[in-house]
Amino acid sequence: MQGNTNTKTVPSPARLTRKLLRILLPAAFILIFFAWILIPMAYTVLWSVTDPKAGWAYPNALPLGYSLDTWEYVFKFVKIWDPIKNSLLIALATTAVAFLFSLPAAYALGRLDLKGKSLIKNLILLPMILPGMAMAIYVGRVINRMGLSGTYAGVILAHCLGGIPYMLRVLIVGFEVVPQDILDAAANLGGGPGVRFREVYLPMIAPSVVSGGIFTFINSMEEFTMTFIIGLPTIKTIPTVLFSFLGESYSATRGAVVTLILLVPNLILLMIVEKCIKTEYMGAALGKM
Amino acid sequence: MENSLTIKNVSKFYGSFQALDKINLAVPEGQFVTLLGPSGCGKTTLLRIIAGFLSCEEGEVYFGDRLMNDVPPEKRDTAMCFQSYALFPNKSVYENIRFGLRMHKVPKEQHKKLVEEAMEMVNLTGLGSRRPYELSGGQQQRVSLARCIVVRPRLLLFDEPLSNLDAKLREKVRVEIRQVQRQLGITAIYVTHDQAEALAISDRIVTMSAGRIVQNADPRTIYERPNSKYVADFIGTANIIPCSVESREGDRFVLKCAYGTLRAIDRDCTLQPGAQASLLIRPEDLFLAAPGSENAITGTTRTVVYMGNVLDMFVDVNGTSLRAGITKENVVTENAPVTFAVKPDRIRILEA
Fold first, then answer.
1. CATH topology for A79-286?
2. How far apart are CA B196 and CA B201, in angstroms?
3. Where are the domains of chain A?
4. Residue from the list B82, B131, B140 with its beta carbon closest to the beta carbon of A181
5. What ipTM was reported for this prediction?
């Protein structure tokens, strides 16, 4: 330590290293992170425009020829529009049903004094913990008993099972953080229960509704096992088409195209939502306390 | 005059903890009444029972002569300013203030005029389109006040509304609250733990302790003629020491205490010679005097603090501490002999 009296003018090597690390480490992480996401993405895009006749195999770094033949094939011969419509329809309906089911439940679990509340809160997470295939097999049986196999209602019900835990969880938190004072203020200015719900709860849980909705929607869009067991062969969604290209009739190019098709609505949704959730809402919800 | 609010034998329990113990209180119309006490004394509980947010196990709450116990808060026609302001975060200032008008089904065409009047009254003109989070704390509390007064409630309730503001602003908003309340003549119930605030703002102060009302009087009486050691100590600064009553002639007493033998005039005291008591001397009632004058107290200064408006000092009198506040023209050094005197009618005799 004795030789360190000049540290103000000449940084010691240790300090310099630390300074460098502070910049380099995050930079490295960001790079790895981007590579992790972007490299597979780039490959997917490349595969989707690879000329199927030319092909692309080791040791070539890039495809040997490019064409939009696969895109044309997928849209012309696979009738991809039906699965796209199915996927969007089922995802929308799942989100709506999950929301309507979760709203009263979340209110009860978030605002009321109930016995065994924490136990219930943990139980609703079970569908997230159980392996998807195990769940799908048993849920499939139940839905079959109900006579709903191969119907939209059956698929939507099954998808809800995956979405409700997310939705319920975030809505409960949404309800919990609404300050009692604001509800009291509304009440003592003459706002009855209905007004309090519409004008205090709903706007303040809106961010939770949006994020729960995204989770549920994307979860449904990407759900394969439930649709596979309950919906097929009548109801095809994008993931079931994708899996058919990655399974029996393997085709990397077609798989890539379908993957991108699946990705697009989710990306658009995320971007819309990014615009919708303003940070002001969060600040507003917590107030300036 | 009719009482706006009457509380009869109200008790409240939280499990086995008794938050309120048979509270009785009557508030005449147009008065500004403060519920004062340390945290946990039940003042907020009482306010919430008045507002209808809490129910009470025993007793009755009347507005005028109407029993309110089973009336939900939205039908009580009260309006409360909260410590957290409790503004609707997703509504503009204008919409926040208009909320009560909509709920009270006031005709739409009057809204604009009424809201603007209320905003003018609390100096918020021009801020109608702002959102609450774009305002300072003082402005937010003003919005909250405007939101309350715009509906001309039967009772205006305040739950420590100034606690989140800094000292300067607190005084300013406090004056505004009082002005607006007087101007409109609305009965107000104000909860605070700040005794200076209570003295400054109230017609009456209801001092509470452990779920009971200790003294209910106007500010001057509360400060100058407290009915107990608790009130004397809680409000303002005070010298309270044990004493014994030596003799009594009508309202004239001779007291013996650590400060010496003092003469006191106290018309409220019922104690007889030989009784043990406590005496109260406010620091500002002491003045510098020559040794040997009536009611002289001689001691040695220990600390002298220049406060700007007064010299605040602690004096050692025969081993007992005496706090005195004298005007700033005087020069007193530390660790020097000093003699004070106090007028007999400035000494208050309290039960021991």
1. MetI-like fold (1.10.3720)
2. 9
3. 2-70, 79-286
4. B82
5. 0.84
